[in-house]
Predict the structure.
Amino acid sequence: MAYHRNLEHKLAESLGDTRVVMIAGPRQSGKTTLAQKLTASSHSPNRPPGRPYVTLDDDGTYQAAIDDPVSFIRQFEYVTIDEIQRAPELVRRIKISVDEDQRPGRFLLTGSANILTIPTVTESLAGRMTIETLLPLSQSEIEGAERNVIDALFDDPDKAFPFGPYDVSDIEARVLKGGYPEMLTRSSQARRRAWADAYIGTLLTRDIKEILDAHHLKDIDKLLRASAIQSAQLVVYAHIANDLKLSTPTVQRYMRTLEQMYLIAFLPAWHRNDLKRLIKTPKLHFLDSGLLSSIRKITIDSIRNDRSAFGSILESFIFSELQKHSAWSDEHYDFSHYRDKDKVEVDFIIERGPHELIGVEVKASATVRAEDFKGLNRLQSVAGKAFKGGALIYTGDKVLSFGPMMKAIPVSAFWSA
């Protein structure tokens, strides 16, 4: 099934005013499909319709690119190059090309590793390239909805979220499937787990080994599985290192590798200079709850028998959804979490500029009580006038008001039209 990607409009705009446009994100998230769609429709009065599409996953194309990058780039006026991270030596030639011919939209690139971690890229294409991140499908994209939940939370939550009821019948299934298009085609958890195992195997034996020169693949595999247990928790590198019998610097280096491959993300702690009682340790999140569930071998039956594991998976699911909505918004949002020395927490703080923020708390329950807003109330007291609202995301079916600026919102509001 073909899905409309809500990031498409930003990419089309970038191709109209920027020389190099990059679609970054994990393998199998839909980058190639979107790039091919943009390639097929790319046109303007200043250039012929369409452009060549080449992929460095093709062995012949890859060999030609690394053997003679000068000739490889010189042959193109406009081009789409898929999986550019496989041949980072092309970047310098692209810089020379777009400095000589500065028309916008000349190079549309995709990459499955965070290209900003390659020093030559950041140095060569600064000011010449726009990078947009395409994560696996959001639930709203799966349903064909375009409402941006973060924009709505800031601008008009009352109108954006009717008081209900919302359909909550398939929340667990959605969380366990995640957003990888291939995972959504699999009819059973066992088949999705088989795909996830093969996907991780490909990353380990090809991408991580080839791109990031990581040699100890068994250790990285163990760390990935340990990270799955740690998802939605504070990151304590020393504890992980001790459990895996690795050094702390090694764990930090390998976890950066997993981050560069868009498997995990680190959520920094929110802080202000005048607040001394805040914990500054980041939290770890998986970027896809389906992959997370498969690694942890969690099924519908297991979470219905034991809900203890579902809370952390739901929190990472919401983290991923928020990242996706942020990516296609025209606004810029910064994310963090709140935890103070009284152990009062807020799962997510979202900031829009220096003077506006909202808090988002996640609860894996269909009921909400006033005391569930303890963290959001604390955040409001310390943030002052910057606080624009608090949302508690839960598994119930109605929007509920808990006083001025505080609402409980069903998780299904993320995909309801």
